[in-house]
Structures are given as structure tokens and as C-alpha cells.
Design goal:
Elements lengths: L11 H9 L6 H11 L11 H14 L3 E5 L5 H8 L6 E6 L2 H14 L5 E5 L2 H6 L7 E6 L6 H8 L3 E10 L15 H14 L4 E6 L5 E6 L2
């Protein structure tokens, strides 16, 4: 079946149908989507609504209490993770932009989840390395600089409980991962990361074509 993949192309109409028949964005999430769109082309960094719904679902399914996010942007994914955690759950959100994350802060407050979110500004690797190495996270989401993906996993994995899951975004990179002519640092880094995770004995890995490609890494015992 490799040369005849079972796949339904997602048209704008079909995407709207897909979102509407899952858990569609509520008023606060929709407002955050619309405010982010005003930033222009960079708004494409925001996760798709169906991906956000999946992240909330997964957090609840795992019974996650502690999550970490590398790359917050305007906070849609953070909001979705926080909604999937219990009242005493916490998301450690890591980013370098005070401007973009301030948009998220306002919407977290409106959504009533700000108390679940610990936002820390600065290089994510520095923050992760400042933490103890005992397992403290149930769930992680990585959506930051592509050349840093491998390093983020190396810092998160020892701090993730057995059976915990790391979500890694943009692993299809707009299809560039299978385009030999693309040799820019980001594309090369994602190809290398994908190959390494597929054979890493520490995790069960599955890549799904959700949005721009999402890899799920489940930590083995």
C-alpha cells in the first residue's frame, strides 16, 4: 500500500466539516485564532483547531497532570493542553517572545485556565536543564526551532514518566522532507530527527498526517 496511500485530500470545505464534527473551537479559542491571524503570515505557526482538540483529548486520555510545551507562540496549544489537565494540573510553557505570549496570557485568563500555566521566557534548553532529571511530566509538546528538536527530546525524555507521550509538530515540513532539492538547515534537521526517532529504542514512535505532520513518541519502560 506504500505506493497507493489510503488518504482523503482535505479541501477547505472538508476541513470545516472535520473541525465542526469534532470538538470545534469555543468563543475564547476562536477569538485567539482571529487575533493571531492579524499578525499576518506568521500566524501559520499556530496549531490547527483539530490538532488543538486532539491535544486536549490526549491529555485527558493519558490522565496527564503535568505537561511541558516548547514553543508557545500566541498560546493556542497551551490553552488546549491546559484544558485537558485537572484543576491542579500544570503546563510549563517555554518561549522567548514576550509580545506573542502576551496575546496568549489574555486569552488564558478569559478561558479560566491561567492558573494552570507556568510561562517562562528564555531559551527552552536552559530552562529544561535547570529542572531536576527525575520524571515529572506526563505529556510534552515540541513546536519550536526545528534544528533544536533532537536536543529538546533529549532533555525532556528523562523527565517524562514511563508511558508518557511527547508530541512533535511539523514533522512533514510542508512535504519538504521528501524533496531532495531542499537542503536548508531546518529541513535537514527534521529529516535527521524523523529518522532517529523511528529507530530509537527508548520510544514507540508513530507519525500521523495531522496538519503539518505530528509525531507521537511514547516512552518505553
Amino acid at each position: 500500500m506504500a505506493d497507493a496511500p489510503k488518504h482523503t485530500p482535505i479541501t477547505p470545505a472538508l476541513h470545516a466539516y472535520l473541525v465542526a464534527h469534532g470538538s470545534p473551537p469555543d468563543a475564547v479559542q476562536q477569538a485567539l485564532i482571529e487575533e493571531t491571524e492579524k499578525l499576518g503570515r506568521i500566524a501559520m505557526m499556530q496549531v490547527a483547531p483539530e490538532q488543538g482538540a486532539f491535544m486536549t483529548w490526549l491529555a485527558r486520555t493519558l490522565g496527564a497532570r503535568r505537561a511541558v510545551e516548547v514553543g508557545t507562540f500566541t498560546g493556542y496549544s497551551t490553552l488546549c493542553l491546559a484544558r485537558g489537565l485537572p484543576e491542579d494540573g500544570r503546563v510549563l510553557a517555554l518561549d522567548v517572545s514576550a509580545e506573542w505570549t502576551e496575546i496568549g496570557r489574555r486569552h488564558w485568563e478569559k478561558a479560566g485556565v491561567a492558573h494552570k500555566i507556568d510561562l517562562r521566557l528564555g531559551p527552552a534548553l536552559d530552562t529544561l536543564r535547570s529542572l531536576g532529571r527525575e520524571p515529572v511530566f506526563d505529556l510534552a509538546f515540541i513546536d519550536a526551532d526545528k534544528t533544536g528538536y533532537a536536543s529538546y527530546v533529549e532533555e525532556i525524555l528523562p523527565r517524562l514518566r514511563t508511558g508518557g507521550v511527547i508530541l512533535v509538530d511539523n514533522v512533514l515540513w510542508g512535504g519538504s522532507v521528501v524533496s531532495p532539492e531542499r537542503q536548508d538547515p531546518d529541513t535537514v534537521a527534521i529529516r535527521a530527527f524523523n529518522a532517529a526517532m523511528a529507530r530509537d529504542p527508548r520510544v514507540d514512535a508513530v507519525m500521523i498526517p495531522l496538519s503539518d505532520g505530528l509525531t507521537l513518541l511514547r516512552k518505553r519502560a
